[in-house]
Structure formats: C-alpha cells, structure tokens
Amino acid sequence: MATSETNKDTNCSSHDGASTLDFPKGSGRPSLGSDVMYQYQGFWSFAKAIQDVKNAQQNFKASDTDVVISTLPKSGTLWLKALTFAIVNRFRYPCSPASNNYHRHPVLTVSPHDLVPFFDWRPTPADDSPPGDVTMHDSARRLIGTHVPYPSLPESIKTITNCKIVYMCRNPRDNLISAWQFANKRRAALPPSNDNLPPLSLEEAFELFCDGISIFGPFWDHVLGYWKESLEKPHKVLFMKYEDLKNEPNTHLKRLAEFMGCGFTSEEERQGVIEDISRLCSFETMTSLEMNKTGSWKNHIENKIFFRKGENDDWKNYLTPEMINRLDYLMEEKLQGSGLVFRYNHPPSVAN
Fold it and tell me: What is the 3-state secondary structure (H, E, C) of 227-296?
C-alpha cells in the first residue's frame, strides 16, 4: 500500500497522551486518523483510547436503566446523542420553540458529547474521572455513549437484560469520506511537531479503509457485531441506519422512542412533538449554534470540525467508479450471508 505516512513505532501515542502501554515493537500502523493505531481485540484505535477501553472493561458497571448509544465515528454520533437525550428528557425539557426557556434547552447549550458522555474514553490526560463516571441530567434512563465494537463492550452491558443498546451506522462510502475529511482536519489542528502526520490523500484513506485500519474498525466487523445481536436480541439491541433516519425521521424517531421505553402518545404526535424534536436536533440547528462554531470539546477537538455537511450520498463528489466498484465488492464479500445491505440512490456501479 502506497502511503506518504511514516510508521512512528512507539509504545504509546504521542498525541493521545498515553503513559505506559505494552504494544509490541512494530505493531503501530499508519491509519485513517490523526495518529498511528494499534490493534486490540480485533479492532484498531489509538494507544490511549485502547487503554481507556481496557479500564472500562474492568471497571464499568451497567444498570438495567442504561441506554448505550453506539456508533462508528463519523456515523451521526452527535445527532443520535442529541435525539436520544431530547426524547428521553422531553417532559423535563420541552422541545417546542413556544415553550418557556426553550433557548436554554440543554441540546442548545451543551455538547451532545457531554449530555451523553462516553463511558470508555477520557479525551485528555488531565481528565482524571474514573471510567464509567457518566454523571448527567437526571432522567429515567441513563444515556451513555461508545464507539467500541460489540464484542469488546464491558460484560455488564451485554448481560444485564434491560440495559439497551441503540446502534446507528452509516453506509461505508459516506463513512469513508467523512472519516477522511475529519482525520485531515484533526491533523491540521494539532500543535506543530516533527511527529505530526501529513494530510491523507483520498487514495491513501481509501486503501486504509479497505484494509480495515480505521478507528474502531474494520468497518464491516463493527457493523456486523451489532447487526447480528440486533437479530438475535431485538429487545436489547436496536439497529438503525443514518440514511433511513435522514429520509424518514418521524418513522424512525417513533421506533427509537418505543425501543427506549418512552414512546410517543397519540396526543404528542398530534401536537407535533416528534417534529419539534427533529427540528431541535437537526443539522441546521446544531451548526447554527455559537458553541459549535467556536471553542473545543474538553479542550481536545474543535467543535466546528465535528460537523461537515450532514448529507446522504456526498461520496458521489469524491469516489471514482473504480473505487466504488472495489468498495462495493469488498462489502458484498464481508457482509455475505448476514442480511445486512447498504442501498444507494444512484445508478449501478460500472461493471468490472
């Protein structure tokens, strides 16, 4: 695989602030991210992130009122977190613009990453909160986030019957493009250093994605892990697609609310509550907020780079017919027999 990156073979990730991690010499790989990645339990991630996952596996204790929000990075994470928070807390924080204190709604004033915090990730070394310290707004359901593949979740999440998991994926073409652009923005935002990685070309990002070396990837393993569990345990795991939610928000918000145990009443539907929530958490609303134009989340990632276009099928502006054919063939091979299919609103790929 041709790449402009150098393999910085270190035992910890310089940008992630990891301390002592025992990774074999030579195991770090150039990646579709802002730094080299290592493999752990079959997935790829940064050294510091892997250490946090290990800590969470050992220490996090789920409860039967938890709802775990899981995604691959760049699959609508902030959107799904905002939606689940707004749905679960809609009686405490009404979502209608006509309601009192609407302008103070937490979705309009607090990052969704803080409303639905990661239970398995501390973004900076200075964040000394223990794994699983996920204090949040008081509600009937504790909402917690993760990017971790299903097999690597803490056992308590998988074994406690009433602990629910909401998983959302995005089609691989758009996930690739969004991850590539996010990685380059992260690389450009890092403090100047001789260790900094250069920008990734699309060709390099494509090769890395097809090799499975993306954060918490391979893509196909991540989606299949949750897909299979959703088929076996539909009461416990809800599998959603970004494209479906974008195309039919009302249908899938009703499905989401029902799954979390707080379905919409007929009166709420008549009053337009579903539409209010959809509007409150929309890409247009989120990107118009001053907090998402300036500043950074936990002094770690600029808020503005979390948002790009929020569109389906933006891959059309980047991927060549040859790339599309290769990626489609790879997905067909990896997902074969699972029943999971990604559909696109476009003419068939050019034949091989």
Answer: HHHHHHCCCCEEEEEHHHHHHCHHHHHHHHHHHCCCCCCHHHHHHCHHHHHHHHCCHHHHHHCHHHCCCE
